[in-house]
Amino acid sequence: MSDHDIARGGRRLVRAAATVALAATALLPATGCASAAPKASKEDTVAVRTLDDIVKGHYKAATAHFDTDMRKHLPPDGLEKVWKSYQAQFGHYTSHEKPKDVRTGRYTVVRVPLRMQHGPGEFRVTFDGKGAVAGLFFLEPGVPVPKPSRT
Question: Which of 117, 128, 109, 19 is nearest to 69 (CA)?
Answer without folding.
Answer: 128
